[in-house]
Amino acid sequence: MSLISALAIYFIIWWLVLFIVLPIGIQSPNDDAEITLGTDHGAPVRPRLLRKALVTTLIAGIIFAGVYISFEVYGFTLEDLIF
């Protein structure tokens, strides 16, 4: 696996994991008693984006390590995934 391929696969895994992690732990203003006028009712109160980016990076790294090991160490190819 070339460096460009590895970066592309990691990038795709990172974005997929990000969209899984984003809604975890979100509280909307509707859940809280205090609603600030002028804000969207679906916007999160504290999104904690830096924390979610770090968690996403960690999880994506673990998944990418599994993909890398399966392709490079065990020799799986894309043709092995097709029935």
Task: Tell me about the largest β-sheet.
Answer: none
Gyration radius, in Å: 19 Å
Assembly state of the chains shown: single chain
Structural class determined from secondary elements:
mainly alpha
Spell the H/E element sequence: HHH
Tell how many strands the DSSP assignment holds: 0
Shape: elongated
User: How many helices?
Assistant: 3
Give the fraction of residues assigned to helices.
55-70%
Overall average pLDDT: 88
Distance between the termini: 22 Å
Per DSSP, what share of the residues sits in E-state strands of 2 or more residues? under 5%
User: Uncertain segments of ≥5 residues (pLDDT<50)?
Assistant: none
Describe the structure.
This protein has a domain at 47-83. It contains three helices and no strands. It has helices spanning 3-21, 49-73, 78-81. The protein is elongated. The mean pLDDT is 88.
In short:
With 83 residues, this protein is an all-alpha fold.
What labels describe this entry?
mainly alpha, 83 residues
Task: Give the helices and strands, then pairings.
Blueprint: H1 3-21, H2 49-73, H3 78-81
Helix pairs in contact: 1-2
